[in-house]
Amino acid sequence: MTEQFTHLDAAGHARMVDVTAKQPTVRAATASGRVQCGPSVVAALRDGAVPKGDVLAVARIAGIAAAKRTPELLPLAHVIGVHGVVVDLEITDEGVSIIATVRTADRTGVEMEALTAVSVAALAVVDMVKGLDKSVRIADVQLEAKSGGRSGDWRREA
Fold it and tell me: What function does this protein fulfil (predicted)?
């Protein structure tokens, strides 16, 4: 039964999948998430009145940095060349919407990097606004799409 799990060896122990023989290909992944905030926090975000500073700029940089450091956080993730990261944040009536796209030309995909970028960007938003409202929360972090690699393209259905 353990043969079906790529991150387990024959004895059932966790292992890093060996991708040495795989050829590098262009790959991309997009993830999304949101930080839910109350009306007073949304107003402060829109007015640029958050005491800690530019929330979206800090969150964007945090997300980019996190994508590049994913293997340090996830022990079975491969160290790969992260060649492009875009983290977009938008203030909505409910809080902050986050979308991250990560690209590479490597032997394995960047789904975890995209999810990590969104997660850490969301944590940065929470850190920046928690002094205004401790009830903010992170929600709906999920993979939206991936392209490239052996499994091909995938997109979340609406």
Answer: Catalyzes the conversion of (8S)-3',8-cyclo-7,8-dihydroguanosine 5'-triphosphate to cyclic pyranopterin monophosphate (cPMP).
77: annotated binding-site residue? yes
Known binder of ligand: residue 16?
no
Residue with tokens 């160290």: 79
The DSSP 8-state label assigned to residue 51 in this structure reads T
Note if 133 is an active site residue. Answer: no
The domain spans of the chain are 19-147
Question: Coil, strand or helix: which one is 56?
Answer: helix
Residue 3 in marked binding region: no
Q: Which two tokens stand for residue 24?
A: 């590098």
Q: What is the pLDDT of residues 61-103, one digit of tens each?
A: 999 999 999 999 998 899 999 999 999 999 999 999 999 999 9
Class of domain 19-147 (CATH, top level): alpha beta
* Of 9, 18, 88, 127, catalytic: 127
